[in-house]
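writing this on my phone so excuse typos. first protein, seq and then structure
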Amino acid sequence: MSKDFLAPDGQLRCGWAGSVPEFLPYHDHEWGYPVADDQRLFEKICLESFQSGLSWRTILAKRENFRAAFAGFDWTRVARFGPQDVDRLLQDAGIIRHRGKIEAVINNARRAEEMVVAEGSLAAFFWSYEPGPDDQVPPQTASITPQSIALSKELKKRGWKFVGPTTCFAFMQAMGLVNDHATDCICRQKAAKARAAFTSPAVQQAG
């Protein structure tokens, strides 16, 4: 796939943004911009877990269904889900009916509760894995990085599931921990500006 896509407005975007129509608004308004909201971070790590082995198009098309099924990804509610909820979700045609992934979201909600107690917020934890200036890789050249490997390892150590290094890097790209917009993409500078105005929750927590 080309690294650049000439959008209908005549401006270049990342190549993947032009592969299907629904990707362009997601690319332009969400992907790569820094996120500090715990619920959005939890939602994204869960959706990336569901994507494992599938396409993001499949997950994006079902995102509202996932939100309805998992209580808006309010982890304090999802953590209370039990076997009957698993059975209910396995019958829900609006989501991906994969028992392991469904059970992983419930498990990860419980681990998220523990993380907030230990770290103050999910954001403070996740943003502590933001690459430093010397750790940047050229845009759209990597599927894993040392930081995503380290994040995956620590999440697994804390009992999280379906959080491999590739899943973690996709999460980091989407939530703005790295600016992986293509060099010529019009959104690269927009994301860079947003990141420059953003104070890392990890820094705030440390302060």
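second protein below, same order as before
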Amino acid sequence: MYAHILIATDGSDLAQRAVEQGLALAKALNAKVTAVTVTEPWTAAVSGEWAVAFPVEEYEKATAANAEKILGGVQAAAASLGVTCDGVHVKDQYAAEGIVEEAKARGCDLIVMASHGRRGIAKFILGSQATRVLAHSAVPLLICR
């Protein structure tokens, strides 16, 4: 059915549920996993006075350390289940675009990610990365809430 599953995570508790579901599915299907976390460009994440207090070099160090922690946790969980898992930190991208591009580049046949399930004005203002992935991905998407 699925041979290569991409699991997107930002390290949040909500994303952890998607990680657990994705790894369980991978184990059941004997599929390999690529865990992905995406870091927004510094210019999008830091602006105004924060740019002076948090220079680009510090931002890159902090995001790299955070990505290593997030992906290390997924890889450890995968190893405990006997699932093969690569970890990828996609830098300087917006989440949805980075997820879709990485899934395509690695030949993944399923994307697993979480969604906050926002509705109405909150969805309009904050957007939905899951909706964007769904709109732009050529592969199926499993959304965990």
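Confidence is low (pLDDT under 50) at residues 122-126. thats all i got for now
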